[in-house]
Amino acid sequence: MKRGKMTQRLxxxxxxxxxxxxxxxxxxxxxxxxxxxxxxxxxxLNHKADTYFNCLSAYTNEDCNIEPACRTLKHYNIDxxxxxxxxxxxxxxxxxxxLIALSPSSVQSGKKLPRYEKFIPWDITEGGEAEDxxxxxxxxxxxxxxxxSVYLYR
Length: 154
Description:
By secondary structure, this protein is of the alpha/beta class. Helix content is 36%, strand content 19%. It has one domain: 3-Layer(aba) Sandwich (Rossmann fold). The N terminus is likely disordered.
């Protein structure tokens, strides 16, 4: 059987150039905004692997209390900036490779979510209240380590 056009194989140089042009995968962390945990997750991922991902954070409540998040991150010597933290409505027309919801309440708000390739549900509350910040930051850190091991070593 004859094909219409021959496909040219990429040489090593062209393959490397194609890899360099590839954009970084985008990750959107989503929380309800009560404690700013999406900002915590974004900051930890940026701290560990910002060269591999475009990372943003969002919240579903009317506002987001970032004070506890920044205080917690400062304790671990991780930069805290809310320059990529916005209400979920700001992202409705965007596409993400990964949407990571930090708690069931973050997706039960009824607000429209952006388009995404993969949805990853976490439950930082483990079915209860999110009061123990150290435990929650450890949980987020562990989940990010697992996410990185799956993504970077596939």
